Amino acid sequence: ARMSAMLDRPELPAVFDGVKLAAVAAVLYVIVRCLNLKSPTAPPELVFQDSALARFLLKSCPLLTKEYIPPLIWGKSGHIQTALYGKMGRVRSPHPYGHRKYLTMPDGATATFDLFEPQSEHCIGEDVTMVICPGIANHSEKQYIRTFVDYAQRNGYRCAVLNHLGALPTIELTSPRMFTYGCTWEFGAMVNYIKKTYPQTQLVVVGFSLGGNIVCKYLGESQANQERVLCCVSVCQGYSALRAQETFMQWDQCRRFYNFLMADNMKKIILSHRQVLFGDNMKKPQSLSDADLSRLYTATSLMQIDDNVMRKFHGYNSLKEYYEEESCLHYLHKIYVPLLLVNAADDPLVHESLLSIPRALSEKRENVMHVLPLHGGHLGFFEGSVLFPEPLTWMDKLVVQYANAICQWEKTKSHCSDTEQAVSGQE
């Protein structure tokens, strides 16, 4: 009887197999969802006005109309692209050789930038310099900057890369102030140095993330800042800190977690300069106190750091005033040179609501184009077949391709006007 009861009992191994199969299916489902494996690849979404310039760019920049294909396994996850950029920067990053320049600012601060000479002749045979502003707390020694500079040099560009004030661990602050979200003083000093030292050179302005805000604000601040500028490219910026701050406190897309990590990094940089910023220094802002230092220790978001420390370098009365004044939002419509605004649809740091700003501008202004690939994360844009990314990214290639196209466009225009003048002279 006991034997027949054992035989009637369902087989346990079959039950286990079913559970295992369900677990594997669940894991696969999560992987497919997390890695967005079902997401299609497509050409970037473009917003622009139909004009002779736009038509020329579409013809001259294949990357604008071609599919951007990220690495197959993980490249469709904006989080992995962002994490890889944040942790590694780039793969097999080159070491371009440059000279560090030091500029004394009116308030005693020492601005530094690195200068890299071109390694080949430019495609139009002219002298062209890329003036580059990196992302938050970044500098010329970061791998993504080194990779981009090396590629630009090989395409005939001289490159000048700003080192954000206080970002280089080897350079001490010489005044009680460090870089902020929208201060253009150091970038402006670097550009003026380049214009003075190379009177024949023309400029291509490039900004990454926070650097995109700084370069756009700089150009819009005055018409004189746009002299000898061929074009401007901004990659992965958020356009309005005021509108972004609310989204940066949300857990959607893990933005609150990224906010915490970036705040932690900023804290370390500020505290590495605490003697100059918080020590007994007659020149330090009156409003920077020991209470601010203790609040800095407990800060868990960039907004808290901006409110307690950063806004006080420039004497803003509130965080709202600081974000309002320091964002490029109010300066974008004053830029008249060709302007390329690049974002990624899956950038976890830039909320989709902020993309209405570049879209609206591109619909109104003939000099502006907004480029939005489906993938790329925040400054990732890695390319590669299955698992391993290529050293060069889609972003590196697009910026250089766009700059080349604008250089050719300007040369064609000046050639046409020279011909017209010659013809009218003969008449």
From TrEMBL:
The keyword Transmembrane applies. The keyword Lipid metabolism applies. One of its GO terms (biological process) is sperm capacitation. Residues 129-384 form the AB hydrolase-1 domain. Keywords: Cell membrane, Glycoprotein, Hydrolase, Lipid degradation, Lipid metabolism, Membrane, Serine esterase, Signal-anchor, Transmembrane, Transmembrane helix. SUPFAM superfamilies: alpha/beta-Hydrolases. Its main location: membrane. GO terms for cellular component: sperm flagellum; sperm plasma membrane. Its EC number is 3.1.1.23, 3.1.1.6, 3.1.1.79. GO terms for molecular function: acetylesterase activity; monoacylglycerol lipase activity. Belongs to the AB hydrolase superfamily. AB hydrolase 4 family. This is Monoacylglycerol lipase ABHD2.
